[in-house]
User: What shape does this take?
Amino acid sequence: MKQIGITILLLLMFGAPSLAQTNEEIPYREMKTVLGKGNKIRGFGSLDVRMTEFKDDMGLLVGAHGGIILNNSFVIGLGGYGLTTNIAFEGGEPDEKLYLYGGYGGLILGAIFAPKEVVHIYTPVLIGAGGIDVSDRNYFNGFNSDFGFSLESSAFFVVEPGLEVEVNLTRFFKIGIGASYRLVRETDLENVSDSDLSGFSGGISLKFGKF
Assistant: This one.
């Protein structure tokens, strides 16, 4: 037992300096984080125009989005879009024509692939909410107005993933052409369903900022 104890003591005496030297040779590496020191943070804003389908009719969405770009690759921002054209459809009564008005917006998260290349890919996802209104312009005995009488309205939840091809025109301006799919849920309307408000969009985005 005495010999075993002496052996352990010798191992500790000669092994500890060796372990300390090994630890000293390993350089310290600081944890990397998205918002950590040394990361590049830049900002941008855009004007967006899209053609899309609502209730079996084509409409025009106009809006904007913007935010920050982390390390030239990750986008965190906000965006919003409004319906600017008349979307008309047949109501439940004979010769009844109804119209849709509304818009949506929310948080935008995205990834940019090969951002330094002249042509590259951007994949944004919008997660948010919106509102829709169903109006009857002839509700009051044939009286016609621009907006009419609101028959019903509802809020809704929306998720819209997209894919854009971006072209770097200058260091401060680029253009994006792409498509997205708007998935709408949780509407509470009699004349319009979730599927009536869901659909593909295609359009163009003019982006200004420090890229």
Remarks:
- The radius of gyration is 29 Å.
- Strands lie at 41-54, 57-70, 74-83, 87-90, 97-113, 119-136, 149-168, 173-185, 199-209.
